[in-house]
């Protein structure tokens, strides 16, 4: 009985992962407005009924996709204590990841931009952005406390500026991959924040 349940759960997880991947691909290719349950099912190799069974409707699917795409963009930061080193690693790592951005991260950026005009998406992305800014604020506060960051800096201002800069660069990279040299930007943007934060 336990084995059967696990197998059913594995099948369910596999189907959900395939459906979310298909939804992410469709968002990247055609935008969230053209996303339908039928298209997602067809892309993933399932029926529309399976999509409805897993998500209920389009809004629930989009919300689930939005949450699924919000996984850690820069791996390995959880082990680094709050402070300027973690902040600079995040900036450098974020820009480095743009060189090989996957479909889920592309979908995240497109959904994030779409949230400005989609009231149903806005709360999900406001919550995510606030968590992102909170981590950055913690880094600045910790750096000020131990003397590694200039005491006159306002943690909230730094956090807003970094999120805006990174997301703006990422969207530009999506629009014009050849026009945005992420390796060059990686050096200059990380260097810029290193200088700004220095006491």
Structure characteristics:
199 residues; mainly alpha; Arc Repressor Mutant, subunit A; Tetracycline Repressor, domain 2; 2 domains; 9 helices; 72% helix
Structure description:
With 199 residues, the chain is an all-alpha fold. It has two domains: 2-67, Homeodomain-like (Arc Repressor Mutant, subunit A, Orthogonal Bundle), CATH 1.10.10; 77-197, Tetracycline Repressor, domain 2 (Orthogonal Bundle). The protein has helices at residues 2-30, 37-44, 48-55, 58-68, 84-97, 103-114, 122-145, 155-175, 182-197. The protein is elongated, with a radius of gyration of 19 Å. The model has no long low-confidence stretch (mean pLDDT 89).
Instruction: Tell me the CATH topology of the largest domain.
Output: Tetracycline Repressor, domain 2
Order of helices and strands: HHHHHHHHH
Question: On the 0-100 scale, what is the average pLDDT?
Answer: 89
Helical proportion, percent range:
over 70%
* CATH hierarchy: architecture of the largest domain: Orthogonal Bundle
Oligomerization:
single chain
What Rg is obtained from the alpha carbons, in whole angstroms?
Answer: 19 Å
User: Which range does the strand content fall in?
Assistant: under 5%
Number of strands: 0
Distance between the termini: 62 Å
- Tally of separate domains: 2
CATH class division of the largest domain = Mainly Alpha
**Which residues sit in consecutive blocks of at least 5 with pLDDT less than 50?**
none
Overall 3D form: elongated
Structural class: mainly alpha
Reported for the largest beta sheet, the result is: none
With helices defined by DSSP (H or I, 4 residues minimum), what is the helix count?
Answer: 9
